[in-house]
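User: Fold this; tokens only.

Assistant: Input:
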Amino acid sequence: MLPRSAEKKETLLAFLKRGVAMVHLDARQPGVSVPAQFATDAHLRLNLSYRYGIPDFAVRDEGVQATLSFGGRPFFCILPWDSIFAVTSSGTGEGQVWPEDLPTEAARGFGPEKRERPRPRLAAVEDDELEDQPPEPPRVNPDGQKRAHLRLVR
């Protein structure tokens, strides 16, 4: 079994091969370097991609580093693995969450929906009314694939 940091690195590298990967991190953790206005965020999301052509982008054993743009201003970011609690792929919708590193403030964004959803209202419809209705299109992503879900890693 890989140490968590190695598992996070492997996951990020795999998602980067497919396109844009989003790292979810607790910017309050020691060693994190992000712009001051984000330094107190319990759930900061940053998009990374080889396609962005970031010259100092590096995925290392210690974490991720890159000069990223925030409101059009560059900032050299350092993201230690201990601060990263999830990695998602925007291309496929896949993702992995490491619950041990998930801050409680961010947990509700990764758990099952807690609030009750309103129930749909039903109305009586005659059979002949249904014949005039076009069939409902299948519910899939624009790329025609079923949307994947986050996978918890323990």
